[in-house]
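Weekly puzzle thread! Below is a chain. First person to post its structure in C-alpha cell form gets bragging rights.
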Amino acid sequence: MTDGGMLELWQDYHLTARTVEHLAMFSVALLLSMIIGFAVGVFLSRRRRFAGVSFAALNTLETFPDLALLVVLIPLLGIGAVPTIAACVLYSVLPIARNTYTGLTSVSAGHVNAAESIGLTEGEVLVHIRVPLALPMLAGGVRIAVVFTMGIVTLGGLVGAGGLGVPLQTGIFNNMPDLILLSGAWVGLLAVLFDGVAAVVERRLTRRYGQW
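Winning reply:
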C-alpha cells in the first residue's frame, strides 16, 4: 500500500473523527473506572470484612469474555456508547479497586501509629499517609485498566458506539486488508502510547514514594 493509498483510506473512512470518538469514550470510561474503583478500594480497606466476598464477585464478573459482557448489556442499555462505557467500567473497576485496597492496607503500622500519635484522625491518616504511600500501587491498577478500556472501546464499534472499531469492522466484513492494517495498527499504537504514559507515571510515583 502506498503512502497516498494510506492517506486516502484515512480520509475516506474518517479516521481522524473516529479517533476523536474513540478517545472520548476511552477518557470517560477510564475516568469513571478510576472514581468507582478508588471509592470501592477505600471502602473495602475500611470495612475489610466485606473484602473477600466483594473481590470474589468482581473476579467472577471479570471472567466473562469482554464481547459477551458487551452483548449482555445491550438489552439493558441499548446500543451505542453507553453499553460500551458500562462494559469498560465493569471490567476496569476490579484492578483499580484491588490495587487501591492492597496499597492502602499495606501501609506499615509504624507510619499509621506515628500519624495517630500526633493527633491525626482516621480520615486525615487516609489522605495524608495511606493514599500518598499507596500511589505507586494505585498507578499500577490504572495501567491495567488502560489496557482493558482501550480494547473494549474498540469492540464497541460492533454495537454502534463509533470509534476506531468501525473502520476495523468495515475492513473485516468487506475483506479490505489495507483498511484492517491501517486502523488496527493505529489502535495498537494508541494502546502502546497510553500504556507507556501510564508506565512512566507509575515509575515516577514509585521513585518518589518508594515501597513501604
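Puzzle host: Confirmed. Bonus trivia for everyone else. The chain has nine helices and no strands.
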